[in-house]
Amino acid sequence: MTGASRGIGAAIARALACDGWPVGVGYRSDRDGAARVVAEIEADGGRAVALAGDVTKPQVADELFGALESEFDGPVLVLVNNAGVNRDDLTPSLGDEEWSEVIETDLSAAFRLMRRALKSMLRARAGRIINISSVAGLRANPGQSNYAAAKAGLIALTRTAAVEVARRGITVNAVAPGWIDTEMTAALSKELLSAVPARRAGTPEEVAACVRFLASDQASYVTGAVLTVDGGLAA
Questions:
Q1: How far apart are CA 111 and CA 172, in angstroms?
Q2: Dihedral through CA 209, CA 6, CA 81, CA 113, nearest 10?
């Protein structure tokens, strides 16, 4: 999975390892964080490997999958696209660079990784793809037009791919977190929590529990779905 060195990604990696999945802990720059996640998984008896790569580079999808297939001696049958960045600004002043960086990281990279994963999944007639979107892809959030566009696009990509491969035993779903207590949200005003009906932030583990379900056999008839984990924010 991508973006797994901390926060939501790290929690998902640990959760999937608990279910017996060998986990590729993808990261771009936080090598120490990825190493900690791997160590935690191995300490609990699981299997994991840290994989460095900038997912915005087109060739990286093949590189990551090649490394995983070699390390674990088999096809990758679960993909979690969690890598993401935000570069917030109001639309009139948002620059091309800020737009492109977010779209490339949060949407285009997910597409390339899905395309690569589906090659193996279609041969195996089995697979799970879970894309981490955001409540920002479902409701307006001023100052995040680039992030919202990427996350809404990820939802559309999820739904379209889901119907394309449903007959081959592959499910494609999205999880849309709201305010989750991570380093990314630490700088946000706590007053914003007043907009959340549950009146609290979620935890990475609550998001991970939903991903864990979607990756399981119990979710074999769930595809093209968007599961919000947001305390009612998008209701």
A1: 12
A2: -140
**DSSP H helical ranges for the chain:** 7-18, 31-43, 60-72, 96-103, 109-124, 145-165, 204-214
First to last CA, the chain: 29
Q: Is 147 a catalytic residue?
A: yes
User: Token pair of 41, please?
Assistant: 């998984």
Query: What is residue 178's predicted lDDT score, i.e. its pLDDT?
Result: 95
At residue 214, φ and ψ (nearest 5 deg) are -65, -25
pLDDT tens across 29-78, in order?
A: 999 999 999 999 999 999 999 999 999 999 999 999 999 999 999 999 99
Q: Which of 79, 147, 157, 227 is catalytic?
A: 147
**Is the pTM above the cut of 0.85?**
yes
